[in-house]
Design a protein that fits this description.
Keywords: Cell membrane, Membrane, Transmembrane, Transmembrane helix, Transport. By secondary structure, the protein is mostly helical. Helices cover 84% and strands 0% of the residues. It is globular. The termini are far apart.
């Protein structure tokens, strides 16, 4: 990566660091306050659902407004949401303010993520995109590594509302780094074409038509949705599984999250330095995540859960590199924003669904059994998609042979 792009990746890192502090706080504080796994699952559902529902809207917006401007708005407004949420808690009280501000910050995070997806091919148009994705994921993962550590450290000193205030400062620093990069690099985002006349739902219809008709895009969407079943149930239950069912401390929980992120950094460095076939990346990551879910859910010992957790978290970003590089090759550039927004929504709707299932069924069945069931469901979806894809290729080969 060129020197004048360092501030850009620094901005990605600091924004992810701040976002990860919030993601760490919500399930842990809710579980410590209520002592119920079901409330952690419902809090995760409320926290994550809004951020996925707005992806199509922000995707269409990126085809009309400069994605750089949208990224800056995302980071600045998130800072003021943190400050406003803390002020509301001080004035009115209630743990709901933490969930509400995290949900709103999640919506704004979605705006930044889609804008980044649109900007990356423009910024690094002359470089291998799979390697660029690995570096951007590395910036994310460094934030993921340090986020839980920073949150646990600050929680040892301050109450959670002070930690949220510090998170707002981090968002302001991320925006400052992005502004510095924009001025030093001289980057100018492509001017979006004027909006075509038509009904306001036209961008959504175009994106859905691409999902249904573009060769290979449905397969990518289904595989990502299946993978996010396991990611969702892991994120929704990890605090309760570690600190509750396995009776470990919050510092152990932060250490486990950090270990998973470190493993991911090592995997992404390997991807960035080696030109692995995309299909190999996808297959290895998918199988590892599925196996990790079964191990984490079936194990009765903390070390067994840790092994499964590390497989899930460690290979998640490898699978993301495969998914993002695959859809970048499939989606037309002029419709990239709107289609990516819809695809991300379809990919990730299974995450809040997993959180909702935790909230509904955790009181009736063991949480570990639910994790195993969703992991097996992921494996079945992946096998079905692979068989269908193989049959389609065979039919096309026979047709050409005739």
């Amino acid at each position: 990566m060129r020197v004048n792009h360092q501030a850009f990746f620094c901005s990605l890192f600091v924004a992810r660091l701040a976002d990860q502090v919030l993601l760490f706080l919500v399930p842990l504080v809710v579980f410590q306050t209520t002592h119920q796994v079901s409330w952690s699952g419902l809090a995760f559902f409320i926290e994550t659902l809004p951020r996925y529902l707005v992806f199509p809207f922000f995707g269409a917006l990126c085809d009309r407004i400069s994605p750089l401007r949208l990224m800056r708005i995302s980071q600045t407004v998130r800072a003021f949401v943190c400050f406003g949420g803390v002020l509301a808690y001080v004035l009115f009280g209630g743990i709901g303010w933490l969930i509400a501000l995290s949900a709103l910050c999640g919506v704004l995070t979605s705006q930044g993520l889609v804008a980044r997806e649109v900007m990356l091919p423009q910024i690094f148009s002359t470089q291998q995109f799979q390697r660029v994705l690995a570096y951007s994921q590395l910036a994310d993962q460094l934030g993921f590594v340090l986020g839980p550590m920073l949150a646990a450290l600050l929680l040892g000193w301050w109450r959670w509302e002070w930690v949220v205030g510090a998170t707002g400062v981090l968002f302001l620093l991320a925006d400052a780094a992005l502004l510095l990069w924009a001025r030093s690099s001289g980057f100018r985002a492509g001017v979006p074409p004027p909006a075509k006349p038509g009904h306001w739902t036209m961008p959504l219809r175009i994106a859905l038509r691409h999902v249904l008709l573009l060769p290979g895009l449905k397969r990518v969407v289904l595989l990502a949705a299946a993978e996010n079943l396991v990611i969702g149930v892991t994120l929704a239950t990890s605090a309760a599984m570690v600190t509750g069912i396995h009776a470990q401390s919050s510092r152990y929980y932060a250490g486990l999250q950090t270990a998973g992120a470190v493993a991911t950094v090592l995997i992404l460095l390997t991807i960035a330095r080696n030109a692995w076939p995309a299909r190999t990346l996808g297959l290895l990551a998918f199988v590892s995540i599925c196996a990790g879910g079964v191990i984490a859910g079936a194990s009765a010992a903390p070390w067994g859960y840790a092994v499964g957790f590390l497989l899930i978290v460690g290979f998640d970003k490898m699978f993301n590199v495969y998914i993002r590089s695959a859809r970048q090759k499939i989606i037309p550039p002029e419709d990239y924003g709107k289609t990516t927004g819809v695809v991300i929504l379809l990919n990730n709707m299974t995450q809040p669904l997993a959180g909702l299932l935790v909230g509904i069924f955790s009181a009736r069945a063991q949480t570990g059994l639910l994790i195993v069931a969703l992991s097996l469901a992921m494996g079945c979806i992946g096998a079905t998609v692979s068989i269908g894809s193989a049959l389609s290729r065979r039919r096309r080969a026979l047709a050409l042979g005739e």
